[in-house]
Design goal:
2 domains; Mam33; MAM33_sf; MAM33
Length: 241
């Protein structure tokens, strides 16, 4: 939806540029700013998902919306279990619902230098393990390190009893389909927030303005702030922080 709108705006800009004229730069900027504003307001009107809490005892990692690090954490005995999430999608279904997720499950122990990593597909009614490996513990940046050594056999080629045992291992730690509703809603909010921020920062850059601590975008385009409850300086519902 948004991509089609931007493609249309680019086409209009090209036609204006081809027509020439001394004020072309100003006209191009005005047209692009108007398009960015329209799409920003369109996205702002979209309804957020209902408030969803993560299943206990998982807690939301503070600042997760602004990083590529874990979303949820919990303690399990002497272990710390961290959950990372991303959408499973292709370039052709960007407007579709988020109905399948890809999660990284990091199980670490303070006494160990490596973590046990599960890469899983998560659905509303199922969870499937794609791979299991040992990797160096995640650094402070929150990024999962790409392994540089052998990470183990293909999971699907393991003995069925061993595969079942690994599934039981993560299920005991609360990693199952009960996480789906929260992670689905959280990812939707993050993508919505990132898209609004993209339109906003693009407009500020093109107009030569510096970002402000208030919702400068609404003020810049005039009128009272949009009534939608999610247009705030942080652009995110408090329950997903």
């Amino acid at each position: 939806m948004w991509r089609r709108g931007l493609v249309g705006a680019v086409g209009a800009l090209r036609r204006s540029y081809a027509s020439g004229g001394g004020g072309i730069s100003s006209a191009v900027n005005s047209m692009l700013l108007r398009s960015l504003k329209d799409h920003y307001l369109e996205v702002a009107k979209m309804n957020m998902p209902p408030k969803v809490s993560p299943p206990s005892p998982f807690t939301i990692v503070k600042g997760a919306l602004d990083s590529h690090g874990p979303v949820l954490k919990r303690s399990y005995g002497d272990e710390e279990v961290s959950i990372y999430v991303m959408r499973l999608s292709t370039a052709d279904d960007e407007d579709s619902a988020i109905d399948q997720l890809f999660i990284h499950v990091d199980v670490s122990k303070a006494s160990q230098n490596e973590s046990l990593i599960f890469l899983c597909g998560l659905y509303e009614d199922a969870l499937g393990i794609h791979s299991v490996s040992m990797r160096p513990k995640v650094q402070d940046s929150g990024y999962l390190l790409i392994p540089s050594k052998y990470t183990g056999p293909v999971f699907a080629e393991l003995d069925e009893k061993m595969r079942d045992a690994f599934h039981s291992y993560i299920e005991e730690r609360g990693v199952n389909e009960s996480l789906f509703k929260f992670l689905q809603a959280w990812l939707y909010v993050k993508e919505h927030r990132n898209l609004m921020r993209w339109f906003k920062t693009m407009g500020l850059f093109i107009d030569g303005k510096k970002p402000a601590t208030v919702d400068y975008w609404v003020i810049y385009f005039g009128g009272s702030p949009h009534p939608h409850k999610y247009i705030t300086s942080s652009l995110v519902p408090a329950n997903y922080i």
